[in-house]
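During the second year of the project, the team shifted from modelling isolated chains to modelling whole assemblies. The rationale, set out in the original proposal, was that interfaces cannot be judged from single-chain predictions alone. As a representative example for this report, we include one of the complexes processed in the last quarter. Its constituent sequences, exactly as entered into the pipeline, are reproduced here:
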Amino acid sequence: MELIKLQDIRKTYRVGEVDLPVLKGISLTIDHGELVALMGASGSGKTTLMNILGCLDRPTSGQYWLEGREISRISADERALLRNSKMGFVFQNFNLLARTSALENVLMPLLYSSEPITEQEGRQRAEALLERVGLADRMDHEPSQLSGGQQQRVAIARSLINRPPLLFADEPTGNLDSRTSREILEMFQQLNEEEGITIILVTHDADVAAHARRTIHIKDGLIQDGAFASTSGEPAEPVAGSPAGSTTTEALP
Amino acid sequence: MSWMSPKMRARTLRTAFQALRRNKTRSALTMLGIVIGVAAVIAMMEIGNGSARAIERSIASMGADNLMIFAGTAASGGVTFGGGSAHTLTPEDAAAILRECPAVRAVAPTVRARTQLVYGNRNWVPMQILGSTPSYLEVRGWTELAEGEPFTDQDVRNAAKVCLLGQTIVRELFQGTSPVGQEVRINNVAVRVVGVLSAKGSNMMGMDQDDFVLLPWTTVKRRISGSALRETNQSAAAASGSTQQTSTSDLYPGQVSLYPEQSAAQAANNPLPVRFATVDHIQVAATTPEKIPLAIEQITELLRQRHRLGADKPDDFNIRDMSEVTRNFTSTASLMTNLLLGVALISLVVGGVGIMNIMLVSVTERTREIGLRMAVGARARDILRQFLVEAVVLCMLGGAFGILLGRGTSLMIRTFKGWPTELSLGAIVAAVAVSLTVGIGFGYYPAWKASRLDPIEALRYE
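Output from the structure prediction step:
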């Protein structure tokens, strides 16, 4: 079943007098429970695409369906609500609150949650998540007392506190050594398999992308391949996606 | 929607405390401006209040709450005899004023004399020889005696030969020995000294208030000066004949009559000398200096009624007060307080600017944190609220410490410098209100700036 569907998404930045198109018509679908890598060189538009997918930004034109709801034109507050309830974010530089315990860091997104959850429930949930990422004995440690890998685990626990169906990881291993990277990526795979969380890995690294089951390649604001799940057996799917495909071929020369 | 749900409020507050704790030094330094401002306001107000009260008290000791009722002018054949020459004020007037005017605290009828005091081989003419009742001391706020006891109402009834001496007279006549129990001669009447008044210093006109003898007014009237004023004004005697009294027992009813009552024939056969029981002034103390106008109104009404003055007749008495002096003094004190308060308020505003400055720096420094919070679902208003609450918490904490520091300072000034200070609840309320206002006022701009940040750029901010 489709979780995300993009239809001819374009994003154009205005730099002074000049229009700078970054996304030039992106169409793709991502199903529930997928582990997808979004790959491209820097400047390819993959970050902009992730921002739009992650409801941090809105497209200049095009449609975006999340769980069947068209959300390309909703207000900033509604997007904030969606980010809080439907999405988790893991960043390259972890973005943990300094001088704040791991537990408090994990609890932070609950502050903005509309879900009625008690202090105690939140705490239990956060502790369970920290155990899940293997930091049961580090809950009271502050980020400065944790290694890079541990910090990223805290960030993953934080991204899961609101039980989102969708997780974005923006270069999650960019600041980690290769062994820790592998551990983190294995954790993503585990989460994807065991919890059924849809994960989108944004990376420029083919080794990282190799951990995903599908890779969407982006170049110069267009999808080169992997726009649709190869396993998609429904006949309607390619039809809906065909305009995107044609755009791709058009734009290539 | 959830702007004010209690759980949300508690969480926001906790987040604010966490954020402030994360940078203790900076939070403390930011708070310092408010702490000093509030402390200055509190200390200034307490010192100002204390000195205003002290000035009020010292003015009151000079008689700021006092009123003098003078008898009016007598005139005969086109010749007026000057203020106080009419014999219209009686001790009963004094008693009625105390009884019927609620704005009056104490009343004392007074009689004046000016004559020589002799003790042993020394003599002295006091500035003032005053006959009154024990309540005179109450009217003047002079109830503390240096030595001995005041005379009593009984002494007044009996026209007892007792007196209280002021410090100057003690110095001049007794030269260091205790006068209590000794006898001085006043106009050749031997009067026993029962007490010595405490030192009062000079009054606002520069008159030595300690150059003073106080006796029962009956003693002055009957034994010392006779009817001194009457001699200056024979024509008034006939006019005031109706107020004559023949014995002190009529003035102070309730005494046991020691003698069988006289029949009309006996009275005719043994005429007592006519004595006019009028007094020169009545001195009145109002309950507070502010009540003086009210007291004047009540006394005027009462005396006009008692003296049976028709609506077309002028008053046969004059009332004077010192309210102008009081007003000047208190307005000076309040001017000083307001001036200092102004300076203190400026320092509060400076403290507020300091908070705004630091909050702006803090917003810049925490751009990434703001971006992250937005990424995990904080709306612009959540960020606005968070930074606003932080500023307000800083200001309120600063205000609380400021109140403690201000109270401590005023306490220290009181203990070590001996300045009078007085707790000012108004200042504390004002300080809290001002800190809150400063917090919201100066915290709003940085908070608004934070809430305007773009999450994407904020997340990438280095």
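Chain A has eight helices and ten strands. The helical segments of chain A are 46-53, 76-86, 102-107, 119-132, 148-159, 178-195, 206-209, 236-251.
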